[in-house]
């Protein structure tokens, strides 16, 4: 905000001027839209709370996927655009395990164990895909110009989509319902769906585990050392290639478990193309929080989920835009563009240093 | 038999022939100084020994084994440790975590003793244990870089310009420390622009010039040598 109205003090520039006009228009739209919605009072307080909690649940799934982008970026300064497909691989593969567990009745007899088993399975599948991706597609390109692995990532993304389409077909498959996750918790006049609480809590547990891994464990310290200076890390006896592989694996595991959690949360089912939108949303979340920054990815994910849930109803509906709820993707990607224009380093990110730029 | 034997190594940066056949020996328990002007090949020599670069020709033998093409991370557990030029502490890790990284390859019980040992050598580091390395002064970072290298319990310590960028008061301290490390039985290969200080603590020295060894002698003789005095010690 320090640079606000820079063109007034320095030399006039159309770019700065346009950005300032944009700023004013955005603020105006948000204020007018919110004012209209709130004064109409069509949405009750309890409904706002519900939207908020639904946003947190969706956001925690974004956060889990976003961590994969941020971990890899932190170590290789590379955006793994195939990460959405890593998420899909776990989610899509595990739907068959879930169906089998449902058929035998195990899923509803001991749901906790069954869900843990599914998360573990999905995590391992996605981890394997992520590791193969690094080993086969990215490692040979290390040290080449930055555009090269980026294009490879897009290619790998298509490769994975159509491989899984070949394996499991192109139809949608839905995760079976788990009985204990049905229904709602009542807190006063507010009904919170149980599944949302499950999503939020399991995501928090996974995020906490990751935080512990990176901050406290030996390999976590090695990951941070490698991300800071690869050559010196080698002089410490750290096998860089192994640490990079491990990082991809951890990101993959989180994405796979997010796949199962997502499957429980969204009844519309999974298919080979399901990774695309969550992948881009999670990337947005990672950029929003400051790419390369782990708490940033968590915060960015939650923030994006909440904005997406509340924004259309609050701002767009108030501006008289029809079908506002279907425009949540517009909100998400508008956020991405706005962050890139106004605060490219993200909420918690540092300014890109010479080394990273 | 020498602990380290560098035999006619040729190292290139792309097409640039940086080391044109360098040979020297380091015996167990010695301090050897490599002196020379900027671009003489001192740092490249250390990088070749430590495994960061591979010689195109010639051989590096350590403890009788050819390590010319062994990766840097594998040499650490063999007992070679290097303090890189410009210190290279991990700024976003705490002092303690930096020292943990120094002991990354070890799983034995001696780590705790070695930690006490380096804290005895550098009491300042113990006070700053929980501080991020990037927030410390240049002198403290140099201490940390040396301490971290000692945490792998090396037999051979490679020091690249430990006095670079330090205030003159601190330079004495660094060379004092190097002497003390030698007295604990660690063999030291020291690269320095500060030839005066380096030759005072070294047993023998090699003068590098444009990627070749121009002179080699005991440190005492080199200090008396007219060319060395003129070119590197600033004595007319």
Spatial strand order of the main sheet of chain A:
1-2
C-alpha geometry of chain A: globular
Cα-based radius of gyration of chain A, to the nearest Å:
22 Å
Which oligomeric form is depicted? heterodimer
- Please provide the count of β strands of chain A: 2
* Strand residue percentage of chain A: under 5%
Under CATH at level 1, the class of the largest domain in chain B stands as Alpha Beta
Question: Which sequence of SSEs, written as H and E, runs from N to C of chain B?
Answer: EEEHEEHEHHHHEHEHEEHH
Q: What does the radius of gyration of chain B come to?
A: 17 Å
CATH topology of chain A: ABC transporter involved in vitamin B12 uptake, BtuC
Beta-strand level of the residues of chain B, as a percent range? 25-35%
CATH architecture of chain A: Orthogonal Bundle
What's the average pLDDT of chain B? Answer: 90
H/E element sequence of chain A: HHHHHHHEEHHHHHHH
Structural class of chain B: alpha/beta
- Which CATH C-level class of chain A is it? Mainly Alpha
Please give a structural write-up.
- The complex is a heterodimer of chains A (357) and B (236).
- Chain A has a single domain, classed as ABC transporter involved in vitamin B12 uptake, BtuC (Orthogonal Bundle), CATH 1.10.3470.
- Chain A has 14 helices and 2 strands; from the N terminus they run H-H-H-H-H-H-H-E-E-H-H-H-H-H-H-H.
- Chain A has helices at 6-9, 14-40, 45-76, 83-104, 106-109, 111-138, 147-168, 194-216, 218-228, 230-235, 240-265, 276-289, 294-316, 328-342; strands at residues 184-187, 190-193.
- Chain B is of the alpha/beta class.
- Chain B has 2 domains: 1-79 and 154-236, Rossmann fold (3-Layer(aba) Sandwich), CATH 3.40.50; 89-152, no CATH class.
- Chain B contains 10 helices and 10 strands.
- Chain B has a 6-stranded mixed β-sheet with strand order 6-7-8-3-9-10, with helices on both faces. In chain B, strands 2-1-4-5 form a 4-stranded antiparallel β-sheet, covered by helices on one side.
- The mean pLDDT of chain B is 90.
- At the A-B interface, helix 9 and helix 10 of A face helix 2 and helix 3 of B.
